[in-house]
Amino acid sequence: MADLHARLEQLAAARPHDTALVHGRRDGSGRTVTFAQLVAGCREAAAAFERAGVRPGHKAVTMTGDPYHLFTTVHGLLAVGAVPVLVDPGLPRADLRQCLDEVAPEAFVGQPLAHLGRTALGWARGHVRTAVVTGAAVPGLRRRLPVPRARRGGASAGPPAPEARPSAREPRPPVREALPPVPDDDLALIAFTSGSTGVPKGAEYHHSTLLGQAETLARLVGTDGTLFAGFLPVVLLGPVLGHTTVAPAVNHRAPARTPAGRLVRPLLENRTDVVVGSPAVLGLLAEHCARRRLTLSCVDRVISFGAPLRATLADALHAVLRPDAEVLSAYGATECLPVSAVSTADARAPGAGTCVGRPLDGVAVRILDAGPDGVGEIAVTGANVSPAYHARPEITAATKTTTDRGVQHRTGDMGVVDGEGRIWFHGRRSHRVVGTDHVLTTEDVEAAADALPGVRRTALVGVGAPGRQRAVLCVELTARGAGRGAAVEAVRGLLARRPEGRYVTAVLVHPGFPTDIRHNSKINRERLADWAARRLRRPR
User: Fold this and answer.
1) pTM (2 d.p.)
2) I want to staple 514 with a disulfide (CB 3.0 to 4.6 A). Which of 38, 372, 440, 524 is the partner?
3) Is 204 helix (H, G, I), strand (E, B) or coil?
4) Of 182, 200, 235, at which residue does a domain stop?
5) With 90 as the cut, is the pLDDT of residue 90 above it?
6) Sequence-ordered list of residues with C-beta below 8 angstroms from that of 69, at least 6 positions apart, any chain
7) Cα Rg for the chain, rounded, in angstroms?
């Protein structure tokens, strides 16, 4: 595959009038953008950034939930040699401030609401010299659209967007006729992790990393047909792979609260072949279709990203798909995406932990520091692996090793590779419960408990200091009324039958687990452990 820009230009030349992107609206309808229009938007964006003073090497925070503007902004910045920075604006305020201070961005690009947050909350204050607002109705970006200002004592809390029109002394650069090739080893993009295991870290991607991720993703989703992108990062690569990419109006601050009609209507109207989403988004689809007795007959494959796909959700998806449709659970991380995938049929093979399949072609997996049971830390090598963390040299040194096959990344996940080459995920290393005489990994308990009737999901957490932790299983239920008690008793019965269950000292029912912003699927176990500690201290 050529580099990403060249690939997009080739597609626009070969298929100028084919639909590249369907931008979903809140009513479920969609606006179509052709490959020619998408390339024109990227060129116009690149020219707008040059007029604004964005230069090669400048880091540009990018905050927009609009799929079209996300694509043209990111690819326009890449075209001028700038470095897009992707970070979730809904992170805790202190975490977001630390992330932006580490990056020290020269530019800030986003929708008006993002600029309001920037000025009101002081995001990257003292660093940003160029502010550009997205939101034009025509391809590209508009400049000198009034940036919302937060006022304190009548003074502006931040600078306005830069002047739109060039002065007589500064001639306007022409719109680029083509996006130029870029060196493979140049820093291309910084993507922050979700923050589910502490303060988010900025994973650096070189241009070769982006290409490696595109090539690896293509092995999962193919290179043609219609792709339903249930979360925004897939939008950046879908059109480059040749797909008509359907980007529904997902509530990206809370995907699990997206009205299901916004998902189902564009999926059906565009006869989607491949559906990609987090378990939270896929659960909305399955529930809505079951309630309306709809069958997604056009869908050939569903791929779950962001958290393990449990058997109950896989069954719910199969119930609304054709009998020959495939449901896959993909494994990976911001630092190495994707790594492996497994069909739901293979995932139910017996074994401890959760099967996440064999590594995809071009990806190598090793288990480091394995114990007597073969469980150790999963390490990944491949062209899709981020080579470093931005401004975190200590963490980079602890997790990255240069090998003859490229950079090897320690994922922080525990697992084992069986005799058939399948990876069995056992949970995060930092989420292990370490007691006085035992160590429990989360998946050993949760994978089995999550399959019980009336149970939505469970989370094993440790209360107390590591080495003296008390194992507590938190349970989120779907059962109502009298069925809730029966579901909890089923969980206790399961624990009584399993060797590791004897170490679990309490089962607590939680009304709704705290989760990450990006997927609404990764459980925030630190907050859950704090909640469990408070519950256990209450007098009975």
Assistant:
1) 0.90
2) 524
3) strand
4) 182
5) no
6) 111, 134, 135, 141
7) 24
CATH assignment at residue 498:
3.30.300.30
Q: Of 131, 164, 182, which residue is a domain's last? A: 182
Cα–Cα distance measured from residue 71 to residue 39, given in angstroms and rounded to the nearest whole number: 10
Please tell me the distance from the alpha carbon of residue 364 to that of residue 35, in angstroms, as a whole number: 34
Using DSSP bridges, classify how beta strands 107-110 and 59-63 pair: parallel, antiparallel or unpaired.
parallel
Q: Is the dihedral of CA 195, 198, 204, 209 positive or negative?
A: negative
Q: Which residue has the tokens 């950034």?
A: 49
- With contact defined as beta carbons under 8 Å apart, do 125 and 103 qualify? no
* Within-domain flag for 348: no
Q: Percentage helix, strand, coil, to 5, in the chain?
A: 35, 30, 40
Structure tokens at 462: 């440790």
Owning domain of residue 516: 432-537
Pairing of strands 187-192, 406-417: unpaired
| Number of domains, the chain | 2
For residue 473, the tally of other CB atoms under 10 A from its CB is 25
Size (the chain), residues: 540
Alpha-carbon distance of 301 to 321, in angstroms, equals 9
242/222 Cα distance (integer angstroms): 9
Q: How many CA atoms lie within 13 A of 409 on its CB side?
A: 24
CA dihedral of residues 200, 201, 206, 207 (deg, nearest 10)? 0
Distance of CA 157 to the CA centre of its chain: 32
Q: What is the pLDDT of residues 422-462, one digit of tens each?
A: 999 999 999 999 999 999 999 989 999 999 999 999 999 99
The structure tokens 């303060």 sit at 199
Enumerate residues 6+ apart whose C-beta is below 8 A from 391. 102, 103, 202
What are 366-423's pLDDT values in tens digits?
A: 999 999 999 999 999 999 999 999 999 999 999 999 998 899 999 999 999 999 999 9
